[in-house]
Write a structure and sequence with these properties.
The protein is mainly α. 68% of the residues lie in helices and 4% in strands. A two-stranded antiparallel ribbon has the order 1-2. β1 (113-117) and β2 form a beta hairpin. The chain is rod-shaped, with a radius of gyration of 39 Å.
């Protein structure tokens, strides 16, 4: 009811102003006819207002220019508000998809449960991050003598690859789903329209969730064909996923040379790491 009343009042304002202007014009015309009888005098009287007419015409033009200026400001403010709203909506859509992927990632981790033979040949059930820890130890066991010996030759890549495949086969394929979700999430971040610094903030969220043993498994996954695309994303975007890599636990120090130095982040500032990275590189 109040809105309707306001609309009626707003619509009647122009009519009221028009009536007032018309009434003033009629009164002035009547006054001139009553008080100024001679036509010559009326003409002289009217000519006196010529400069005033020019002044008001100029003021009217200035008012028009100022109105256009205000409209431009309002249009720009509207555009800025729409841009801000679009950016907010885009960020909300991004975060919705991002945290949905992270939820899938955590769900996979929470559902990890694999039976692996222990050192005595007995089947043991491992869950969550413990799977990575056990599988990397199994993977590393065949190459124990090669670990971190700078003066020795690294084991042949085909032997490392076949052992790695055997380890993943023991996990009944759960690792491949883990790799796909992680790969998809990082690719999603860096294919978005977010500013570079914002992309890196979301990347750091993922990196903070990875344990040492996960990093080691991911490191060797990047070494082989199955992780080629994942490795390309890391190197193309210079993502320091492995800046906390426990590099002294890799099968052989020369294996760290397989990746661009950029993916090691702060680790690349360590003198011992750099010596191993640059040896015979």
């Amino acid at each position: 009811m109040t809105d309707t009343k306001d609309k009626i009042q707003r619509s009647s304002l122009p009519i009221m102003f028009g009536m007032i202007v018309f009434a003033v014009w009629m009164v002035s015309w009547a006054c001139i006819n009553i008080f100024i009888q001679e036509d010559a005098v009326r003409g002289q009287f009217g000519d006196q207002f010529g400069a005033v007419n020019a002044l008001f015409s100029g003021l009217a033009f200035a008012a028009l220019i100022y109105t256009i200026y205000l409209q431009r400001i309002e249009i720009k403010q509207t555009q800025d508000e729409m841009k801000s709203q679009n950016e907010t909506l885009a960020l909300q859509r991004f975060e919705s998809s991002f945290f949905s992927l992270m939820g899938m990632f955590n769900e996979i981790m929470g559902g990890f449960e694999v039976e692996i033979k222990d050192q005595n040949g007995q089947q043991q059930t491992y869950k969550g991050v413990g799977i990575f820890r056990r599988l990397y130890r199994v993977f590393q066991s065949d190459f124990a003598l090669s670990v971190m010996r700078l003066d020795s030759n690294p084991p042949p890549d085909d032997k490392v690859y076949f052992k790695y495949c055997d380890v993943l086969q023991d996990s009944k394929g759960v690792f491949y789903q883990y790799f796909r979700i992680l790969h998809r999430t990082i690719k999603f971040i860096f294919s978005s329209d977010l500013p570079a610094d914002r992309k890196f903030e979301y990347f750091k969220i993922i990196r903070s969730l990875l344990s040492d043993d996960e990093l080691l498994i991911l490191f060797y996954n990047c070494r082989f064909e199955s992780g080629k695309k994942f490795k390309e994303i890391l190197e193309d975007n210079k993502l320091p996923l492995f800046d906390n890599l426990p590099w002294k636990r890799v099968i052989h120090s020369q294996h760290i040379q397989n990746m661009s130095i950029a993916v090691y982040g702060e680790l690349a500032k360590d003198s011992e790491f750099l010596e191993a990275y640059n040896k015979n590189h």
